[in-house]
Amino acid sequence: MGLRKNVVEADNWFELHAFSISRVMEIVFGLIWGIDAALKFRPEFIYNYSMLIAEGGKMQPQWFSGWFTMWANITSSNPALFAYFIIACESLLALSLILGIARKIGYGLGFIFSLLIWSIPEGLGLTYGPSATNIGSGIIFALVFVFLALISSIYGPNKYTVDFYIEKKLHVWKDIAEIRHFFT
Fold first, then answer.
1. According to the model, what pLDDT value does residue 1 have?
2. Predicted TM-score of the model (pTM)
3. Residue 142 burial (CB count, 10 A)
4. Which of 2, 94, 109, 134 could form a cystine bridge with 33, CB 3.0-4.6 A?
5. Is 2 inside any structural domain?
6. Res 127: pLDDT
7. Spatial CA neighbour of 38 closest among 27, 50, 30
8. How far is 158 from 166, CA to CA, in rounded Å?
9. Mean pLDDT (10-residue bins), the chain, 184 residues
10. How many whole angstroms from its chain centre is CA 181?
11. Residues 19, 160: Cα–Cα separation, whole Å
12. Residue 122 in contact with residue 58, Cβ under 8 Å?
């Protein structure tokens, strides 16, 4: 009987602390995006961005090469501009996750942005090559954004976010911050 009581208490601990746990995971994910953005400030990334895009297109099937050719052509006109845009997007995603601000927009744009990273510079993880062993991180990041959105929609406003306090003063902010308000 005592063992079962300990198991129930352990289960309840996770249930009781779901807000804190999900918030910590969101902050950690935001820190990962922030580190990624900071690493991209290196000159090699900024000035070789279009080459990175072109590299993603190598070893892809012929039917998919047009997608990479298009992006290589677009980014080759001003690679630094596109590189700084990527850095800005990643920095904004990091801030949204760490501070918990404009989460609904952050989750949605993070999902789309992650899919673009996966499908352009990561080349779908280069899964078509003979030595492919990894599908890339972009698709995993996209799924993390989906899971964060699901957690937010299930549990509602989290008191450990900036959104929570903005919503107290500005009720319309719920439309920007809360997933639940997407469906209502």
1. 46
2. 0.81
3. 18
4. 94
5. no
6. 54
7. 30
8. 12
9. 50 72 90 93 84 74 79 85 92 94 90 90 64 74 91 80 84 76 52
10. 21
11. 8
12. no
CA distance 15 to 102: 25
The string of DSSP letters for the chain reads: -HHHHHHHHHHHHHHHTHHHHHHHHHHHHHHHHHHHHHHTTSHHHHHTHHHHHHHHHTT--GGGHHHHHHHHHHHHT-HHHHHHHHHHHHHHHHHHHHHT-SHHHHHHHHHHHHHHHHHTTTGGGGTTSTT-----SHHHHHHHHHHHHHHHHHH---TTSHHHHHHHH-GGGHHHH-GGGG--
**Domains identified in the chain, total number:** 1
**Residue 165 falls within a domain, yes or no?**
yes
Q: Which structural domain, as residue segments, surrounds residue 156?
A: 23-182
State both tokens at 144: 């993390």
Does a structural domain hold residue 11? no
Q: How many residues are given for the chain?
A: 184
The answer to whether residue 8 is domain-embedded is: no
How far apart are alpha carbons 165 and 173 in whole angstroms? 10
